[in-house]
Design a protein that fits this description.
single chain; 110 residues; alpha+beta; SH3 type barrels; five-stranded antiparallel sheet; 26% strand; rod-shaped; transmembrane helix; transmembrane; cell membrane
Amino acid sequence: MSFFISDAMAEAAPATGQADAITGLLPLVIFGAVLYFLMIRPQIKRQKEHKKLVESLSKGDEVVTAGGVAGKISDLGENFILVEISEGTEVKVRRSAVETVMPKGSLKEL
């Protein structure tokens, strides 16, 4: 019955060395570099640009918030701003909710 079961022959143990450790870590290092340059770095750049935009807000700027509300800044606070969306109607929103600053006169076209 031994013709159904193959005999296991022992092989010599493979040599382990420093080169095997480096080639094992190389894909992880490449993956980390690609992740950094394609995802993390652009996100950090966008965050810096948004922070700069929020810090440069001033009274009278025409803005669009993240919720899509367009209006003119009527009052500035440390964390919140008042946005006038029509005559006599003001909405209080967080400064960080401002998505874009539009050119002057954009609201008149709407």
